[in-house]
Amino acid sequence: RVNAELVLSEHTGIRVPQSAVHKDEETGGAYVYTVTGGQAERKDVEVIYTYQEYCLVAASTDTNALREGNEIIVSAWELYDGMILS
Known about the structure:
Strand order of the largest sheet: 1-6-5
Distance between the termini: 65 Å
Order of helices and strands: EEEEEE
Structural class: mainly beta
Radius of gyration: 16 Å
Strand content: 25-35%
């Protein structure tokens, strides 16, 4: 006989590719860029779980928060907030 303890955990959030998540060097916080009205828009996120090439970010009710259905920019060259995308 062996005693075993089963530990389960559940994480909920928005699944995004790790390559889309950037680190702010000044604050250490994480952010992603989305396409909003033809421009790149920075959205701060809280990474709650990382697995392989994806991570979960916390859902938020803030007005400028990342929301389900936002178009995330996965890779780009010299991207910045407000950049006009063509």
